[in-house]
């Protein structure tokens, strides 16, 4: 939006906010006054719909006791909330389930993905991915006797072609958690399929921030967390997407009773439920799951395309402010400038990143640092404004 090279002013920010179609969404979040919250890519802000929903769940627990599982819809919640998240992923109902952490879902999905390509021995993993993804891939490799190779995203397409018919799985993050770079899901998914492999996307930093099109792209598996752009709260359960074409042969390692065809029949052996219900594991964290469900209410009246447009406008504006005010102070904008390569955060590199972020926190500007020298600023278009972006850069200039 702000293509001009001239130094942006606070009046520019005010004008952009005045014409922002999502400006009214901020009132749905309980943000403390005096805080500019640019860390929603780590932990989303508290939606005002959540406290009442948690209170209602506590009431159900207190009054309905065990019958809450059926009478209050707790048992069906993993698939019900999964379908609501699926709507944000471009996934038709019946392919997304919620429960457990992203790490657990990654382990389950990666193992199930490799089992779908039995006989192929190589797994390629995004080298710039979040540590948990790489740690788990290495462990799955040891468990199944697979070769796991960490590959930079820049060389991934070539590596996929070179590995050819030994390639079982490609596992990568849609958005780089450090740089904020958005990768080309369509191109990598197609390349993996051309090699006969399946793809597993970690969309922790994309879900709820930008439109995704899993079904249209033919994505095989995806996982993502509930606590970043979905604002489900600390420890919110993660989701798993399994494309319906894999449900027949899906074979997960964590065969817990919630994924059983007859969970209360206590049969001697494990028999998976039909459809996505087979991807359930054990008893889900109902309080967190229903908090996440309430947090999703905001997406009922908001179009993700508008959230994406707002995010790009905010990050454009932040980058323009940074170019104008910070480039002489040792900062470098790490995040790609092309819209198609940018997620919903801006990362700045500076040798004194830690000290600068500490000073910013003292002024109520909250982002985070990833070692050794990256300052991350996340932009959730539902509650961050252009004035926030302007004031944050002004604060960075002051403390640097
Ligand atoms: C890309 C990515 N994957 C996974 C995780 C975390 O996994 P978990 O929810 O299991 O802590 C994070 C952040 O915490 C992340 O940024
Ligand atoms: N998952 C986190 C946690 O349990 C504690 C503090 C921060 C986080 C994060 O979300 C880190 C995050 N995945 C990142 O992008 O670095």
Automatic annotation (TrEMBL):
NCBIfam families the UniProt entry points to: kynureninase
Subunit structure: Homodimer.
Protein task: Catalyzes the cleavage of L-kynurenine (L-Kyn) and L-3-hydroxykynurenine (L-3OHKyn) into anthranilic acid (AA) and 3-hydroxyanthranilic acid (3-OHAA), respectively.
Enzyme nomenclature, EC number: 3.7.1.3
GO molecular function annotations of the record: kynureninase activity
Matches recorded under InterPro entries: Kynureninase, PyrdxlP-dep_Trfase, PyrdxlP-dep_Trfase_major, PyrdxlP-dep_Trfase_small
Catalytic activity: L-kynurenine + H2O = anthranilate + L-alanine + H(+); 3-hydroxy-L-kynurenine + H2O = 3-hydroxyanthranilate + L-alanine + H(+)
UniProt binding sites for pyridoxal 5'-phosphate: 102-103, 130-133, 202, 205, 227, 257, 283
One Pfam family of this chain: KYNU_C
Residues the record lists as N6-(pyridoxal phosphate)lysine modifications: 228
Pathway(s): Cofactor biosynthesis; NAD(+) biosynthesis; quinolinate from L-kynurenine: step 2/3; Amino-acid degradation; L-kynurenine degradation; L-alanine and anthranilate from L-kynurenine: step 1/1
Protein family per UniProt: Belongs to the kynureninase family.
Cofactor: pyridoxal 5'-phosphate
PANTHER family in the record: KYNURENINASE
Domain of life: Bacteria
Protein's recorded name: Kynureninase
Keywords: Antibiotic biosynthesis, Hydrolase, Pyridine nucleotide biosynthesis, Pyridoxal phosphate
């Amino acid at each position: 939006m702000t293509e001009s090279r001239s130094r942006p002013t606070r009046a520019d920010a005010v004008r952009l906010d005045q014409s922002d179609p999502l400006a009214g969404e901020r009132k749905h979040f309980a943000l403390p006054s005096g805080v500019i919250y640019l860390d929603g890519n780590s932990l989303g802000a508290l939606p005002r719909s959540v406290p009442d929903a948690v209170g209602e769940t506590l009431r159900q627990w207190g009054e309905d006791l065990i019958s809450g599982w059926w009478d209050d819809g707790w048992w069906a919640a993993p698939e019900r909330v999964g379908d609501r998240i699926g709507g944000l992923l471009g996934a038709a109902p019946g392919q997304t389930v919620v429960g457990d952490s992203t790490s657990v879902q990654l382990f389950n999905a990666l193992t199930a993905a490799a089992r779908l390509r039995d006989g192929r021995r190589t797994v390629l993993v995004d080298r710039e991915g979040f540590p948990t993804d790489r740690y788990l891939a290495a462990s799955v490799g040891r468990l199944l006797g697979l070769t796991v190779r960490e590959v930079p995203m820049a060389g991934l397409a070539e590596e996929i072609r070179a590995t050819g018919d030994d390639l079982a799985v490609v596992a990568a993050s849609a958005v780089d958690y450090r740089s904020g770079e958005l990768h080309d899901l369509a191109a990598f998914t197609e390349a993996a399929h051309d090699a006969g492999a399946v793809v597993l996307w970690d969309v922790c930093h994309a879900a709820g921030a930008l439109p995704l099109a899993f079904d249209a792209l033919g994505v095989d598996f995806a996982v993502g967390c509930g606590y970043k752009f979905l604002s489900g709260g600390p420890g919110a359960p993660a989701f798993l997407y399994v494309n319906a074409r894999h449900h027949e042969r899906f074979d997960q390692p964590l065969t817990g009773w919630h994924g059983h065809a007859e969970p209360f029949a206590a049969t001697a052996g494990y028999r998976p439920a039909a459809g996505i219900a087979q991807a359930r594991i054990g008893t889900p964290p109902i309080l967190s799951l229903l908090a996440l469900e309430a947090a999703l209410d905001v997406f009922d009246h908001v179009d993700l395309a508008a959230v994406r447009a707002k995010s790009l406008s905010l990050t454009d504006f932040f980058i323009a402010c940074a170019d104008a005010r910070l480039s002489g102070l040792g900062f470098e904008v790490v995040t790609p400038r092309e819209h198609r390569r940018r997620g919903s955060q801006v990362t700045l590199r500076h040798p004194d990143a830690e000290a600068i972020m500490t000073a910013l926190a003292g002024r109520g500007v909250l982002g985070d640092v990833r070692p050794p020298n990256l300052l991350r600023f996340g932009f959730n278009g539902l509650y961050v404004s252009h004035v926030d972006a302007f004031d944050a850069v002004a604060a960075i200039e002051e403390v640097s």
